[in-house]
Design brief:
Layout: H1 26-38, H2 44-47, H3 50-60, H4 75-84, H5 101-106, H6 111-120, H7 126-138, H8 141-145, H9 147-181, H10 191-199, H11 201-234, H12 254-275, H13 278-282, H14 284-309, E1 314-318, E2 321-322, H15 325-335, H16 352-359, H17 365-370, E3 373-377, H18 384-389, E4 400-402, E5 405-406, H19 421-428, H20 437-440, H21 448-477, H22 480-483, H23 496-500, H24 506-536, H25 556-570, H26 575-603, H27 617-634, H28 636-656, H29 665-680, E6 695-699, H30 707-721, E7 729-735, H31 742-761, E8 767-772, H32 778-788, E9 798-802, H33 809-824, E10 828-833, E11 846-853, H34 860-870, E12 876-884, H35 889-905, E13 911-915, H36 924-947, H37 962-968, H38 974-977, H39 1015-1035, E14 1041-1045, H40 1056-1067, E15 1074-1078
Parallel strand pairs: 6-7, 6-9, 7-8, 9-10, 11-12, 11-14, 12-13, 14-15
Antiparallel strand pairs: 1-2, 1-3, 4-5, 10-15
């Protein structure tokens, strides 16, 4: 709607009649004055005082008062704007009673809405709203139970590289996230909302599902991590099968089965807690964060304390081969020594029991006897020598005690997995995830566009510094052999990091356990709500049930599904296994966040105006690359699986039809790519060998449920079956309505929407449009359409028309215009007759497609038949070519062989047949048809004489003379038949230049100058049409489709209906399906590749 200029609000526009509905009250005039003073648009609700609003209400019959507004979002705004719509001040000059669009665009919520909103909003700042929650989510159990082991395997140097990759990936993603999050309002759903509103419903749904799975599987990892801490380090006696079960690290062994059983119990307990409500879950968040911070401080304090006091835990080893402490104490007890409370050094000797254990099989006896057993310092504290020893990597295979040295599994500390750099990367990456926490809390932030960037990036940098500091601490304070002891077998089955801590190891042990409990609750709480957000968007129909919530606003069904998926992940049995799967869900999400920023920046989209300025698209591109690099480097099988899941969900949403329009960047990318491609395509005709049909489907229907609707659908089906050429398809519906009428324009939009749906139903990929015309605009609209449709080098070159109904003069006239202007515009013409008999996409035809090659047309008839045959509907048919030959059999055979060779060189499978039109007298049937044609021309002839111009037609003033008619029966058609004879081409010459310039001229058509012209010519043409029809019916009685050359139509439509159409009706009489093909001379099927 056009906006009302401010300068039009003058006193001249006001009605002087006080009773007029357009009279402005004094209060309203004051408002007008304030508009003029401000010189800009304004928010009406915020500037009207209650007294003025009450007066306006009484005048216009609006709401009772501003206090009666609804608490729902913008409900009052809509009511109040509608009220203002009845005042002349707010109406555009061409509207009556409709609210001006700029009012609804700039009004703001009323006082109650603002008060309600402010009451519900937490108004958190950077520290409490983003920074601390993000740190709490990032710092987790992996840091305590795996980072030291990563340092022991990879060495400090490669650990730094590993941390750089992980932290740089999340830092770059945080920068991209900050840019995207500050480019608009982020609602519930967090990452899902960001991706779906920027990349579209398809990608948004796909990545949203992956992000949901990431949160669900993360809950499983935290739960199993907590079970590991509980059974290994807190209460090992709870293990099913006793403490001995904790030493069997086989994936199907008792240790992992304990993880599965206790993990399931913990999952059920935490699900019950989550079902109580989100408020209860939030109580554990600060407790969890406090425990993690204290545990980290205890680690650094322990490193310093042990360097000063040298009181670190001792370990027993054969050279560098650690021995399990439980074995040493067991041998001590069996030896009956007198030490009541022995230390590890008291039992670190080659006792008979230990010797027997190593030498019972002989495999390890020689190594055992060569080395000395010694008790050494496992935790020396900060030490340069220890740091130097831990710089290089020492990757090991499963069951190895040293690199390349297989150890005794039941006595020495051996590895439970084969370690590589990328395996360690996959295991540790989940420790740096959680950067989306601040984005998910955007609804509770005082200023999200300031808090999210600063809080997220600060949290990412802080946690990165903590990880680097801890890596250095572990490398400098713990012996290399102990760092490789993942489960603390050499230190009485204690946690390695907790043993380093001061003042008590329980600070780390209990802190790490509580952190897993709190983090798992957070994931189990957020995952069902994320699933509910996806379901509420209604883009994945099968998720619709999960949009429902309970009376307490809890997504119970989503929680049940989350529980089931989490249980499946718990059955993997180990933190390392779950972490490897978890990586790919997070990395896919992070990659798409980076791609959003890249996409918007490269496309220079007008709505890309992020407040976060410290951003460049190259950083986002690097972040996306790192995400995919980590995925494929860690496990390319799982990476491909994640991509397949994403693609499957994308195609599912696309197949079901994403109804949401979110102004996504994928549409912008498609438009930009299309624009670039069109600019590369030259605006000129393609090379003849690259010619393909670019279809313009012209539809003239009433869009009802009657037969004519079926004709339109059949046209679209036929166009879809011709799309083997992969060309352009534009379907245009002609509507005889006025473009000046808004109701007609609205109807045209409805027709266009239905046309697009019908095209989708016919599986025709293309564009739909409508043309509104009146009787006097037919010629101009058709001509303008042919000349202007398309863009650049992508323009329709083939017009597909439907045979008109003979009882509809308007449709006949429109068909004539389409055909005539198609010839003038040098388009290829396809005219389908009997369109309702054409098959739909579900039919499968067998039989023959017959090509009646009357004139050489550059091979367009064969090309159209070949394209049809590529479609599954016509694939079961065989091609037959019928050529009109000479009466001389020897010449016919020569023509047939030449055509057969030519067809072979065109790489088209078809059989060639020669057909003769024998000399025959003009039959009574021909005379009768011609007489009927002459009578129809009487009216046209009178019109021509009045206009003093000679138009096209078949007329003959002496036609009723019986003697003349009788004399015509003696005529022969042999001379006219020659015009049907194909040109005999030389196959060895250039096939592209062997044809006549205009193939349509080769097939005779009713003469443009036949009014009062040669009666003999009229009879010859009609006689040949009848004879050719007889031959076609004899040769192709059961053909599934007959293709014929389309004779060139007359230049004017004056003689079109009663000359041209009658001639074509005679030519195709009794044929079920006919497709006329009229070439322009540009369509040449080349024998070249």
């Amino acid at each position: 709607m056009a906006e009302l200029p401010l300068n039009t609000l003058s006193q001249d526009n006001l009605s002087p009649d006080p009773m007029s509905p357009n009279t402005l009250l004094p209060e309203t005039q004051n408002i007008k004055k304030r508009i003029m003073d401000s010189g800009r648009r304004f928010s009406t609700v915020t500037q009207l005082d209650p007294e003025t609003l009450e007066t306006v209400k009484k005048k216009s019959g609006g709401v009772d008062s501003i206090g009666e507004e609804s608490t729902s979002d913008h409900k009052m705004t809509r009511k109040f704007t509608a009220t203002l719509g009845h005042l002349a001040l707010y109406k555009a000059s061409d509207e009556d009673g409709q609210p001006a669009s700029f009012i609804s665009g700039y009004t703001t919520p009323g006082p109650k809405e603002r008060a309600s909103s402010n009451h519900k909003k937490a108004n958190l700042g950077v520290l409490l709203g983003v920074y601390l929650p993000t740190i709490q989510h990032i710092l987790g159990v992996t840091m305590f139970i795996r980072l030291f082991w990563v340092v022991g395997m990879a060495g400090l140097y490669w650990t730094m590289v590993l941390l750089a990759i992980c932290c740089l990936c999340t830092l770059l993603t945080s920068i991209s996230l900050s840019a995207v999050a500050t480019n608009g309002v982020v609602e519930s759903g967090g990452a899902y909302f960001i991706i779906s509103r920027n990349l579209g419903a398809e990608f948004g749904s796909a990545v949203g599902i992956l992000f949901y799975l990431a949160n669900t599987v993360a809950a499983s990892m935290y739960i199993v991590g907590g079970v590991e801490v509980l059974l290994m380090y807190i209460v090992p006696d709870m293990a099913i099968g006793g403490r001995e079960a904790l030493h069997d690290t086989d994936p199907l062994g008792p240790l992992y089965n304990n993880y599965r059983i206790y993990g399931t119990l913990f999952l059920l307990i935490q699900v019950a807690i989550v079902a109580m409500g989100v408020k209860f879950v939030q109580l554990l968040a600060p407790i969890s964060l406090l425990c993690v911070i204290l545990a980290i401080l205890a680690c650094f304090a322990g490193g310093i304390e042990k360097a000063i006091t040298h009181s670190g835990q001792m370990v027993c080893s054969l050279d560098d081969r650690l021995i399990q402490s439980v074995i040493l104490y067991k041998n001590h007890n069996s030896s009956h020594t007198n030490i009541t409370n022995p230390t590890i050094c008291d039992v670190c000797d080659k006792s008979p029991g230990l010797t027997h254990l190593f030498c019972d099989s002989g495999e390890f006896c020689s190594e055992y006897t060569k080395v000395k057993i010694a008790c050494t310092q496992g935790f020396p504290g900060f030490n340069v020598g220890t740091l130097r020893d831990n710089l290089d990597s020492a990757y090991m295979q499963r069951d190895e005690v040293l690199p390349g040295v297989r150890g005794k599994q039941d006595a020495e500390v051996v590895q439970d997995v084969t370690s590589t750099f990328f395996l360690l990367l996959a295991i540790y990456f989940p420790a740096v995830t959680g950067i989306m926490t601040g984005t998910n809390m955007s609804g509770d932030l005082r200023d999200p566009q300031r808090s999210i960037p600063s809080g997220t990036i600060a949290a990412t940098v802080t946690t990165s510094i903590i990880y680097y500091a801890l890596a250095v601490l572990f490398a400098a304070s713990i012996d290399r052999s102990v760092l490789r002891d993942k489960f603390g077998r050499s230190i009485d089955n204690n946690m390695v990091v907790s043993t380093l801590a001061w003042p008590s190891p329980w600070v780390v042990t209990v802190g790490s356990f509580l952190s897993t409990f709190g983090a798992a609750l957070q994931c189990l709480c957020s995952a069902p709500r994320l699933l509910q957000s996806i379901a509420k968007d209604d883009v994945i129909p099968i998720l619709a049930p999960f949009a429902r919530v309970t009376a307490n606003n809890e997504p119970l069904l989503g929680l049940l599904l989350t529980t089931f998926i989490a249980e499946l992940a718990i059955l993997l049995g180990a933190v390392d296994k779950i972490a490897e799967v978890l990586d790919f869900f997070f990395l896919m999400c992070y990659a798409f966040v980076n791609l959003i920023a890249v996409l918007h920046s490269i496309l220079k989209m007008p709505n890309w105006r992020p407040r976060f300025k410290y951003f460049h698209w190259l950083l986002s591109l690097m972040g996306a690359f790192l995400c995919f690099f980590i995925m494929f480097a860690s496990d390319w099988h799982l990476a491909l699986a994640a991509c397949v899941i994403t693609f499957t969900i994308y195609k599912y949403v696309e197949w079901k039809g994403a109804k949401k329009e979110w102004g996504d960047g994928m549409r912008g990318l498609a438009l930009t790519t299309a624009q670039y491609s069109l600019m590369k395509v030259e605006d000129k005709d393609p090379h003849p060998k690259n010619w393909r049909p670019q279809l313009l489907i012209c539809l003239s229907t009433q869009w009802s449920k009657e037969l004519i609707d079926l004709r339109a659908m059949s046209m679209l089906n036929l166009a879809a079956q011709l799309k083997a050429g992969q060309g352009l398809a534009i379907a245009c519906a002609f509507l005889k309505e006025s473009s000046d009428d808004s109701r007609d324009r609205s109807h045209a939009q409805e027709v266009k929407d239905r046309l697009v749906k019908d095209m989708a139903k016919a599986r025709l990929r293309g564009f739909g449009k409508t043309i509104l015309y009146t009787s006097e605009q037919v010629s101009g609209n058709v001509s303008a359409l042919y000349q202007s449709v398309g863009i650049g080098g992508l323009r329709p070159n083939t017009v597909l028309l439907n045979w008109p109904r003979a009882d509809d003069p308007e449709e006949m006239d429109l068909f004539a215009e389409k055909l005539i202007y198609g010839v003038k515009n040098e388009n290829c013409l396809l005219v389908a007759k009997g369109i309702t008999d054409f098959p739909d996409a579900n039919e499968r035809l067998t039989g023959c497609i017959d090509i009646w090659w009357v004139v050489m047309d550059g091979g367009i008839l064969m090309l159209i038949a070949y394209l049809l045959k590529q479609h599954k509907v016509w694939r079961g048919c065989t091609l037959r070519i019928f050529a009109i030959g000479d009466n001389d059999p020897s010449k016919n055979e020569e023509i047939r062989k030449g055509l057969q060779k030519y067809i072979y060189m065109l790489r088209i499978d078809a059989d060639v047949f020669m057909v003769n039109l024998l000399d025959m007298e003009v039959s009574d049937e021909v005379v009768e048809k011609t007489a009927e044609l002459e009578r129809q021309q009487q009216t046209i002839r009178s019109q021509i004489r009045r206009s003093k111009s000679r138009e096209s037609g078949f007329t003959n003033e002496a036609f009723n003379n019986d003697d003349t008619i009788n004399s015509r029966k003696q005529l022969r058609v042999y001379d006219s038949v020659r015009s049907f004879t194909p040109v005999i081409i030389n196959i060895t010459e250039d096939a592209e230049t062997s044809f006549i310039d205009n193939p349509a001229d080769g097939l005779y058509t009713p003469s443009e100058d036949s009014c009062g012209g040669d009666v003999k010519l009229n009879l010859l043409k009609m006689n040949t049409a009848v004879r050719l029809n007889h031959v076609i019916n004899e040769s192709s009685p059961n053909s599934q489709l007959v293709l014929l050359n389309l004779p060139r139509p007359p230049k004017h439509r004056t003689t079109f209906q009663h000359n041209y159409m009658v001639y074509l009706d005679v030519l195709t009489e009794n044929l079920q399906r006919v497709l006329f093909v009229g070439g322009s001379g540009k369509e040449v099927v080349s024998i070249d590749s």
